[in-house]
Design goal:
about 550 residues, Rossmann fold, GMP Synthetase, Chain A, domain 3, 9-stranded mixed beta sheet, 15 helices, globular, binds adenosine-5'-diphosphate
Amino acid sequence: MLGQMQDRPLLVSSLVEQAEKFHAEQEIITRTVEGPIHRYTYRDMGLRSRKLAQALQALGVKLGDRIGTLGWNTYRHLEVWYGVTGIGAITHTVNPRLYEDQISYIINHAENKFIFTDTSFIKILERLEPQLQTVEAFIIMTDKANMPDTSLKNVMCYEDLIDAQDGDLVWSTFEENTAAAMCYTSGTTGNPKGVLYSNRSCVLHAMASAAPDVLNIGSETVVMAVVPMFHANGWGIPYVAPMHGAKLVLPGPHMDGASIYELLNQEKVTFTAAVPTVWLMLLAHIEENNLELPFLDRVVIGGSAAPRTMIETFEKKYGVIVGHAWGMTEMNPLGSLGTMKASMQDLPYETLLDYKCKQGRGVYGVEFKITDDDANRLPWDGESSGHLMVRGPWVVQSYFRGEGGKILDDEGFFDTGDIAHIDQEGFVQLTDRAKDVIKTGGEWISSIDLENAAVGHPDLAECAVIGVYHPKWDERPLLLAIAAKGKSPTKDDVLAYLSDRVVKWWVPDDVIFVDELPHTATGKLLKMKIREEYKDYKLPTY
Ligand code: ADP
């Protein structure tokens, strides 16, 4: 027997409607690309999103059309998200930090009809325009006074476009599984693949994320969305904030420590989220200038592992609680978050810190399992490492245009490509990416654990560990290290330091000091490139 409740579709437009109805006066603050701080309200945002939707309809945009954006976190970008999605079209956030040939590849692959862009990315688009096969026009997200000179053909000014409309539009109603947004994976292996988020997955993810044990966002929260909107849906924050009428602060293009600090304090931000690199810059700025964080309550760190010292500094020195999160483009993106439990309250801080360094426990809505190479489930004992697999209403079913074929196992779980163990409390700890694990004499060495151990050396700034060929052991670890400013550590120093911290067979066979290491567009070490560079490296141990 079926339940007899209403089957209303979960649509992204309901979020902006909710904000307009109940939080019309709540503010959205942007550091604009043009420079000045811009302030307006959810009432303004709703009206302008509807005007934009009308303009898109006038341009012939229909259900299912893909509309690209190259934009920082700003109020105009937010309006584009809601305006596009509200008429059943799909917001395709293009990561402008990708390599240019990847940008043109994904715009063509997604068949973007229009591109909304900030003035910052005009030069990139001018270079790529001859290769873009489906783009009918570029809409520059600025006003007439700030329109740049450009060789781009078919250019429109955002403010002119919406000025021509009156905002008298009712959001379209359609099936909740209609695609709302799309993002491409960063393509560390092969071409980037498209992930199509549905209206339903975005709304369910926003509902789950707002909960107290997850992001804990309500109408009294002042949220700064630092994680870019082009990075896995801005971790869903641009959906969660309007859902609950949180004041929303958008940092625009300025992600340096001083700019972020200024907004945090001026706007009395209580919650924010971003990758560790951003927080490194912020903490360096605060420490250099002897500053405090008087308003900030919580910070979510994810995308890469949050270093232990970073968590400890935020919590002990500045009184800011850290939530270490894990997620990915193939989800909306949140999977796990490290909120402590009531039963952990009396644990000593060092033990709590051990938990906080893990990637957190599964958020309601996402099921986890870990499996061995033969797909057998492994126990949650905090030791057995295996393939981290996820299933749930905001986990990818298949990639855009079926790239990669069948990507779920027989139980419907998606292989994240991460290697992890899960403890009895349900806390996930990533030990590696499957392709980065160092396989030595039939055993696995976690390249991440080794990197974390090595970077604790006071004279090292950044480290990467890869497995290189060894005739006896198959692979052995090679450490590439960047020395800290003004320091000149030796190989022996580093190996001696590591010998005290990891088991003997984990100690790398060699250390090479380098000036820089390659990174992906989202700031992760580009191990594939490093492996390529050192594939013929002969270790001194054979
Ligand atoms: P992007 O490259 O845009 O950040 P991806 O979806 O490619 O997004 O990245 C997802 C991957 O990032 C995860 O599979 C995992 O390897 C890594 N990752 C995400 N969060 C964490 C975290 N807290 N600690 C370690 N690695 C993480």
